[in-house]
């Protein structure tokens, strides 16, 4: 076992005046306050050379010596899974999440998630397993693919979280929607809240939505087909399922969407859906079944633009369109050409 592990921290301005246990769990995010309090009571934490008290507060530039004698107690199991890393430095990863992977473990799926694979990568880069915890500052739905930024340590996590909360991060998504959109660009400015249908967390832009909050999505049509449209969406807010709900509300649901139909229709409750989908039923889509994606909706997080949390440099990352959506577009293009050729003869 790699314990005890010893290190020393300097109290930064952002954590000035925090209780010692709160300060420690910000730096060691896989430890609970309970575990840290036990280490403090055992005399394993010193502040400026003196044994810390459980109720003590720490102040800027104080030096905190830490002796970890116990392993973390809220650690996601590390799993060596493939991760498409677009960028890595001392503070963060930028990765391309595949469709079908959960970001976090849930009650019915505790393994195989992005959190498990990122924990493995962090453990490979530190002396002690669990010393760092992946910091997710934004989410993608399980069946969405695309670019994500993951913090390695708490200062990065805080900085990125603030950028997202203030709307300073520029995000773009590519979606293939059902139906031909004639308006080539526009703004969807509709509050989003909890759907009044069902007993689970689904969202709605209808007037009946509960606890609705402002939500805005800009969009530009990138390519048109007879029964579908390739749209690039730019969300200015970060509501749950925002792009899916907004596009569906205006009559153009994303191809293969399990829940959100045209005009804000909730197609089925989550309880009625199996957790592993082997195929998407069209559910009223105009697109023929042989053109539908398997097992997911056609939504891809294309790019992120944000300030580096430490250097403040503006950075832009882009994830290429995944193979399944690219093949769907190729089939739609081929179908359009076939129809055009038939009409000219």
Which helices and strands occur, and which strands form pairs?
Layout (H helix, E strand, L loop, with lengths): L4 E6 L9 H8 L5 H9 L3 E3 L2 E2 L11 E6 L15 E5 L3 E6 L16 H10 L11 E2 L8 E7 L2 H12 L4 E9 L6 E5 L2 E3 L8 E2 L5 E4 L2 E9 L3 E8 L6 H8 L49 E9 L6 E5 L4 H21 L2
Helix pairs in contact: 1-2
By secondary-structure content and strand pairing, the structural class works out as alpha+beta
Strand fraction: 25-35%
CATH structural class of the largest domain: Alpha Beta
Named CATH architecture of the largest domain? 2-Layer Sandwich
Count of DSSP-assigned helices: 6
Mean pLDDT: 90
Features:
Structural Genomics Hypothetical 15.5 Kd Protein In mrcA-pckA Intergenic Region, Chain A; Pseudouridine synthase; ten-stranded mixed sheet; four-stranded antiparallel sheet; 6 helices
